């Protein structure tokens, strides 16, 4: 069904008023085809590239269907599953925008937020529950959530769920839901695992495919830049040159690893760029604050991992930079989909090393697009060598090693862990001079046996004079000692009975024939 306005899609009058207030008048192709079917209660399988308005395709019909009815405590009426916290929060914002004329209650179950606040919302009853799979199962296992009242299930960004390993959780959740429900399933690609999931949990769905799977928007200009060095410091220098040369209003810079995001952020800030970071190790408050700063223009460059690649609606992003070529060709489509949204012009630039040429060929084959190079392309010899590589390796130079472990070099030896007593300690200066770098307890057996001198020299004992018996108070004036515990094997000997100090070894088997050097003088009262 094709229409030029929202009025013919079967939406309620309150929803149409909210759409008009939001400034939208013409539905996108996925909205025009999915909304009329979803309003009737039939299952929908929507396949469309990112940035085509998939969120409104299920939000608008859900609000229309939830106008009648009432939620009960701990029993949500509808459930939306999203792969990331950011995408779940974005869906919640869409419900607030389009449901402004309704009194629908909403709860957002994501990590990084207090369980108690989420408990209170669930206890009051919610019409719309938006959650990530892990946090949803946490609430269910704690007995704070019941899913038998769910009427509508939405699985958004299903292929991203697959990438993040959420498919087992999705299967578990679907089995907890009532069989008589409506399921709306949206994905940008349809790998075999997703197809199996659709066949298992959707009943006679209407398949809506508005674009070829894994295609990029025609409004995005895609270019590549070859970095002959391949070292990370050279890539960072090339990235700074590209940012200065191109007309960059704002940009998202994608890295494959979270630690590379932190290194890149530090480098950009060091060279005077207004930059922020977004990756999975950040707490929810910091991630939300960073995204808000980027949307409002307080941050112009956003270094991010793939956590920001799927589903985020950040308007007016002029450039996407791939600092690392993504490991999966599908991820390239979702990364550059953050620009060129809603018919606007966008640009993407990917920095390519010799190790990445094989992946670039896979990307070009997937999206059926000719590779356009900025500057000199790789020569034929480099391309030929890339085809013989077994896999995509990461070249690790000294700069990268030192960045991954700040302040340490290969020559400094292993770091001693504070909780491990058997670790090798750092060598002392005098030990470093003579090459003795082993632990003390490893050197003990190598010491030669000490010879017992017949009589110690006086000057050798000056630093530790013997304790004089005359300094000791009379035995009657001393405080009585506590009795020795019964479980001790050897009783304490008196000082006057053999002169044995506590802790010293008593000669065994000598009887009265104790050598003179082991004897100590005993002072007798009255002499």
Give the count of structural domains: 2
Secondary structure tally, helices: 18
Distance between the termini: 123 Å
- Count of DSSP strands: 14
The CATH C-level name of the largest domain is Alpha Beta
- Rg to the nearest angstrom? 37 Å
Question: Can you walk me through this structure?
Answer:
This protein folds into two domains: 204 residues, Rossmann fold (3-Layer(aba) Sandwich); 175 residues, 3-Layer(aba) Sandwich (Rossmann fold), CATH 3.40.50. It has a seven-stranded parallel sheet, with helices on both faces. The protein has a seven-stranded parallel sheet with strand order 10-11-9-12-13-8-14, with helices on both faces. The longest helix has 14 residues. It is 33% helix and 12% strand. It is of the alpha/beta class and 527 residues long.
Secondary structure layout plus pairing:
Blueprint: H1 13-22, H2 29-39, E1 44-47, H3 54-65, E2 78-81, H4 85-98, E3 106-109, H5 115-124, E4 128-131, H6 133-141, E5 152-155, H7 158-163, H8 167-176, E6 182-187, H9 192-201, E7 206-209, E8 220-226, H10 232-245, E9 251-254, H11 258-270, E10 275-278, H12 284-295, E11 301-304, E12 319-322, H13 329-336, E13 346-352, H14 357-367, E14 373-374, H15 380-387, H16 398-404, H17 429-434, H18 440-443
Parallel strand pairs: 1-6, 1-7, 2-4, 2-5, 3-4, 5-6, 8-13, 8-14, 9-11, 9-12, 10-11, 12-13
Helix pairs in contact: 2-3, 3-4, 13-14
């Amino acid at each position: 069904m094709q229409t030029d306005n929202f009025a013919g899609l079967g939406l309620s009058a309150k929803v149409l008023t909210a759409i008009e207030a939001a400034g939208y008048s013409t539905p996108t192709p996925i909205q025009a085809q999915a909304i009329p079917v979803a309003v009737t209660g039939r299952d929908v399988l929507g396949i469309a590239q990112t940035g085509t308005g998939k969120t409104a395709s299920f939000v608008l019909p859900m609000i229309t269907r939830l106008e009648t009815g009432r939620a009960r405590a701990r029993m949500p009426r509808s459930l939306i599953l999203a792969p990331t916290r950011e995408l779940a929060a974005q869906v919640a914002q869409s419900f607030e925008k389009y449901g402004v004329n309704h009194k629908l209650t909403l709860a957002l179950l994501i990590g990084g937020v207090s369980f108690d606040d989420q408990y209170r919302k669930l206890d009051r009853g919610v019409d719309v529950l938006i959650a990530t799979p892990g946090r949803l199962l946490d609430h269910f296992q704690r007995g704070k959530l019941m899913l038998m009242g769910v009427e509508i299930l939405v699985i958004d960004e299903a292929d991203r769920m697959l990438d993040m390993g959420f498919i087992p959780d999705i299967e578990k959740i679907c089995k907890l839901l009532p069989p008589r429900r409506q399921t709306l399933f949206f994905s940008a690609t349809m790998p075999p695992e997703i197809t199996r999931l659709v066949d298992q949990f959707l009943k006679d769905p209407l398949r809506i495919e508005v674009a070829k799977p894994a295609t990029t928007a025609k409004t995005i200009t895609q270019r590549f830049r070859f970095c002959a060095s391949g070292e990370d410091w050279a890539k960072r220098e090339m990235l700074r040159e590209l940012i200065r040369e191109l007309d960059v209003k704002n940009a998202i810079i994608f890295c494959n690893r979270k630690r590379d995001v932190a290194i890149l952020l530090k480098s950009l800030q060091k060279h005077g760029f207004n930059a922020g970071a977004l990756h999975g190790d950040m707490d929810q408050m910091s991630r939300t604050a960073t995204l808000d700063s980027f949307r409002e223009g307080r941050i112009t460059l956003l270094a991010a991992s793939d956590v920001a690649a799927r589903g985020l609606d950040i308007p007016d992003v002029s450039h996407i930079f791939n600092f690392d070529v993504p490991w999966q060709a599908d991820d390239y489509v979702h990364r550059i989909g953050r620009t060129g949204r809603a018919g606007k012009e966008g640009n993407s630039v990917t920095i390519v090393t010799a190790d990445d040429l094989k992946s670039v060929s896979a990307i070009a084959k997937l999206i059926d697009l000719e590779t356009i190079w900025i500057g000199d392309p790789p020569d034929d010899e480099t391309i030929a060598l890339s085809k013989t590589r077994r896999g995509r390796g990461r070249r690790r130079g000294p700069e990268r090693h030192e960045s991954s472990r700040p302040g340490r070099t290969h020559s400094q030896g292993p770091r001693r862990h504070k909780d491990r007593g058997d670790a090798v300690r750092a060598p002392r200066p005098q030990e470093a001079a003579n090459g003795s770098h082993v632990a003390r307890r490893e050197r003990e057996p190598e010491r030669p046996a000490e010879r017992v001198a017949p009589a110690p020299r006086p000057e050798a004992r000056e630093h530790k004079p013997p304790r004089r018996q005359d300094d000791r108070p009379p035995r009657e004036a001393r405080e009585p000692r506590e009795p020795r515990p019964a479980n001790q094997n050897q009783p304490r000997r008196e000082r006057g009975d053999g002169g044995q100090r506590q802790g010293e070894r008593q000669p065994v088997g000598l009887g009265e024939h104790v050598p003179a050097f082991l004897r100590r003088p005993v002072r007798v009262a009255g002499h």
